């Protein structure tokens, strides 16, 4: 399922809005989340999960093809922790 | 940032009422959750991909007591952030 599929599904569910409006709303939603992550802000979505920015220390790495050692700089990576409700939904055993 | 901040953003930028904006945000995450529950992959370009992975049963250890325990097979959700987002962060 891609962003476009999501937009179509969402529009079918909320028939009152045009595809253009739903499309714009979805863009705003993901843009505001991306902006928050870029600012290093934590996002907490109840029932879904949370996004945090984690720092990775600099380390020596290896090019897996050539085996040459390369220095990896300190960097930040987005990390997602699944919320309890969604975790149980995905594992649907319970 | 919480859902309320996202709703506020939709409300301001789209000129929708608070209630309508909240409906859109809630429905969007509900649709994502439902398709993940079905084991589907959800790809959001520029943001990242959500994928369901099958984990086999394995022997684990309670890190506090060192006691061996068995971990049953399960399905877990993973998120891989988009390269665009990772680049923008560094």
Notes on the protein architecture:
The complex is a heterodimer of chains A (94) and B (90). The two termini of chain A are 25 Å apart. In chain A, helix 1 crosses helix 2 (19-38). Chain A folds into 2 domains: 1-39; 41-94, Irregular (HU Protein, Chain A). Chain A has helices at residues 3-13, 19-38, 84-90, and strands at 43-45, 49-56, 59-62, 69-72, 75-82. Chain A contains 3 helices and 5 strands, in the order H-H-E-E-E-E-E-H. Chain B has 90 residues and is an alpha+beta fold. Chain B has 2 domains: 1-40; 41-90, IHF-like DNA-binding proteins (HU Protein, Chain A, Irregular). Helices cover 43% and strands 30% of the residues of chain B. Chain B has 3 helices and 5 strands, in the order ααβββββα. In chain B, the strands form 2 sheets. Chain B has a 3-stranded antiparallel beta sheet with strand order 1-2-5. In chain B, strand 3 and strand 4 (68-71) form a beta hairpin. In chain B, helix 1 packs across helix 2. The interface between A and B is large, with 49 and 48 residues.
The fold-level CATH name of the largest domain in chain B is: HU Protein, Chain A
CATH homologous superfamily (4th level) name of the largest domain in chain A? IHF-like DNA-binding proteins
Please trace the helix and strand order of chain A, writing H or E for each element.
Answer: HHEEEEEH
Query: Percent helix among the residues of chain A?
Result: 40-55%
CATH evolutionary superfamily of the largest domain in chain B = IHF-like DNA-binding proteins
The CATH class designation of the largest domain in chain B is: Few Secondary Structures
The biggest beta sheet of chain A reads: 3 strands, antiparallel
Q: What is the top-level CATH class of the largest domain in chain A?
A: Few Secondary Structures
Task: Supply the CATH architecture of the largest domain in chain A.
Answer: Irregular
How many structurally independent domains of chain B? 2
Instruction: Give me the strand/helix succession of chain B.
Output: HHEEEEEH
Task: Count the domains of chain A.
Answer: 2
What's the count of strands of chain B? 5
How far apart are the termini of chain B? 21 Å
